[in-house]
Amino acid sequence: MNLAMPRLSDTMEEGTLGRWLKHEGESIEKGEVIAEIQTDKANMELEAFQGGVLQRILVQEGETVAIGETIAVIGDGSEPSGEAPAEQPRAQENAKPPAQENVQPDGQQERRPERARQAAEAAPARSGPEGRIKASPLARRIAQEHDIDLATVKGTGPNGRITRDDVEQAKSAAPQEQPAEAPAGEPQPTKAAAGEVQPFTRVQSIVARRMVESKTQAPHIYVSLDIDMAKASSLREEVNALGGQKVSVNDLVIKACAAALRAYPKANASFAENGIRHNAEVNVGFAVSQEDGLIVPVVRDADQKSLRRIAMETRDLISKARENRLSGQDITGGTFTVSNLGMYGIDEFQAIINQPECAILAVGAVAQKPVVQNNQIVIGHRMRVTLSADHRVLYGVDAAEFLREVQRLLEEPLNLGF
After folding, report:
1. 178 part of a folded domain
2. Do both 127 and 146 map to the same domain?
3. 118 and 237 in one domain?
4. What is the pLDDT of residue 80?
5. What is the C-alpha separation between 164 and 270, in angstroms, rounded?
6. E strands of 127-231, at which residues?
7. Do the strands 275-277 and 284-286 form a parallel or antiparallel pair, or are they unpaired?
8. 391 catalytic, yes or no?
9. Up-side HSE of residue 13: CA atoms within 13 Å toward CB?
């Protein structure tokens, strides 16, 4: 059976083979993770669709191929070992003459990203037990950057899987080498010196492209207002004091947005070529920063879940995002996004719409501010929010009504349901 590059996200057009976890000739079981794939959103695990033997690997680590292209061949184990050579050019799989194995029909050399080719050529050959060490993609990358042998790291993750924290701990325990000629007191050089161009990572390139596409294709409009968070803050403190899953301000916002989206389904819609797509599910994504960009995990059916359930899911998704363990189910299907910079003390900002969604909510910090109540100046707890909306789907009145509903729910938080 030919194993093809799968579509692991709704916007994925190609994938990069990050790492093979199985070697040619090894037996695999259905559902077993056999490779790590870098998509346009995250590093993801590829599970075998059927059991058998990994007969032939056609795409090497670091190579980028289109969705549907064959990356490996899985056999039933009955093939003679001589029929499964260690490496076969992908062109032979397509029955091209040997002289044309790296040439496209138009006579141009087969395209392969330069950095991916260099990474593949520079990567040390792995075989035997070392190649089967269980570790997250982020843990592997950190270990490679700091020349840490994963065989010496003890994994604390599920089934002994090595996590980022395990590698960071190993890095801290390792003796730090100081340059012999570095004068005392002078700053050490960073990875990218001043004036030097640091190449984009794959994630950074994709995020940059998608942001430009959204900003140039979707006509953005912005509406802002202040939300009185006094009752919500007080109620959150009471709920967290009871023990159990802690609830954050962002969890409150996600729950309020989910309820408002159900009440105003137009804000839950998407722009399509032939009209407006009305989504049946309310799936709220929230932005999570990573070392080389950001990612948007999704709380599915958020309007049907309690606040504590949402809090539990967001913690799990954040943990998985930090360790590059998000699955396709975790990052696809979003219908609305929340971007919160309040934890950095930011009062107000405007976010770019995460297409194909039609709106995103930018959330600022909850801060004490002087406000007027009953003709008197008092100290209030206010949070500034700004809705960015696709004017092709939401008009100004639509955006304002939706945002007023979010405000009403957060100012009367007992309606959210804990």
Report:
1. no
2. no
3. no
4. 52
5. 36
6. 220-228
7. unpaired
8. yes
9. 2
Q: Which residue has the higher pLDDT, 64 or 417?
A: 64
The answer on 372 and 232 residing in a single domain is: yes
Question: If you average pLDDT over residues 99-125, what whole number do you get?
Answer: 40
Does any domain span residue 23?
yes
Cα–Cα distance for residue pair 26/33, rounded to 1 Å: 13
Cβ atoms 310, 302 nearer than 8 A = yes
Token couple for 121: 């050529």
Query: Is the pLDDT score of 121 beyond 50?
Result: no
CA neighbor of 138 nearest in space, from 157, 111, 110: 157
Instruction: Indicate the average pLDDT of the chain.
Output: 80
Helices (H), 245-305: 249-263
Which amino acid, one-letter code, is at 57? Answer: I
Nearest Cα to Cα of residue 400 among 160, 221, 246 = 221
Q: Which residue has the higher pLDDT, 105 or 360?
A: 360
Is the peptide bond between 356 and the residue preceding it cis, with omega within 30 degrees of 0? yes
At residue 289, φ and ψ (nearest 5 deg) are -80, 145
Would you list the DSSP string of 208-254?
Answer: HHHHHHHHHHS-EEEEEEEEE-HHHHHHHHHHHHT-SS---HHHHHH
Q: How many domains does the chain have?
A: 3
CB of 340 closer than 8 Å to CB of 250: yes
166-183 burial, b at 16+ Cβ within 10 Å, e below that, comes to: bbeebbeeeeeeeeeeee
